[in-house]
């Protein structure tokens, strides 16, 4: 990937992440993101509140990132939604590319249809250790 494209994708990651962070403390508790140039991926991790409505959160996420779809070409946003509850990381959904994000569901055919529970990792990407509202 040439330097101009790397810079453009990095700038899009920064812009989209800043817009997503505007919703921290309201729709979701915390959001983190990176740019993985080797995979042409702009991953996003969203920690929801226990009472967040994932459909509403995903609609806002899509509203923010979908205007960039044409600009990023063959690169893809990805998004993972989780909730920290009862000392567990409840992994609700992972959407693998722009098509799944736009469609609003992944492999299962329905958003958050197959949650998985894991211990909250010691080295979590999130600063928060729970999904409780203040």
Shape: globular
List the domain count as a whole number.
Answer: 1
**What is the number of helical segments per DSSP (H or I, 4+ residues)?**
4
Q: What level of helicity do the residues show?
A: 25-40%
Biggest beta-sheet profile: 5 strands, mixed
What is the structural class?
Answer: alpha+beta
Rounded to an integer, what's the Rg over CA atoms? 15 Å
Strands of the widest sheet, in order across it, are 1-2-3-4-5
Low-confidence stretches: none
Give the beta-strand count: 5
Sheet-strand content, in percent, reads 25-35%
Listing every helix as H and every strand as E from the N terminus to the C terminus, the arrangement reads: HEEHHEEHE
Structure, briefly:
The chain is an alpha+beta fold and 134 residues long.
Describe this structure in words.
This protein has 134 residues and is an alpha+beta fold. It has one domain. It is built from four helices and five strands, in the order H-E-E-H-H-E-E-H-E. The chain has helices at 3-21, 54-65, 69-72, 98-103; strands spanning 28-33, 41-48, 76-85, 88-95, 116-119. The protein has a five-stranded mixed sheet with strand order 1-2-3-4-5. The longest helix has 19 residues, at 3-21. The protein is globular, with a radius of gyration of 15 Å. The model has no long low-confidence stretch (mean pLDDT 95).
């Amino acid at each position: 990937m040439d330097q101009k494209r790397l810079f453009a994708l990095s700038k899009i990651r920064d812009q989209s992440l800043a817009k997503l962070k505007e919703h921290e403390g309201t729709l979701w508790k915390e959001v983190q993101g990176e740019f993985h140039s080797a995979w042409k991926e702009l991953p996003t991790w969203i920690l929801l509140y226990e009472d967040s409505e994932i459909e509403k959160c995903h609609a806002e996420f899509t509203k923010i990132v979908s205007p960039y779809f044409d600009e990023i070409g063959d690169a893809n946003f990805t998004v993972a939604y989780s909730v920290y509850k009862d000392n567990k990381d409840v992994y609700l959904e992972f959407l693998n590319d722009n098509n799944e994000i736009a469609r609003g569901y992944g492999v299962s055919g329905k958003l958050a249809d197959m949650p998985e529970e894991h211990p909250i990792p010691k080295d979590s990407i999130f600063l928060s250790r729970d999904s409780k509202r203040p």
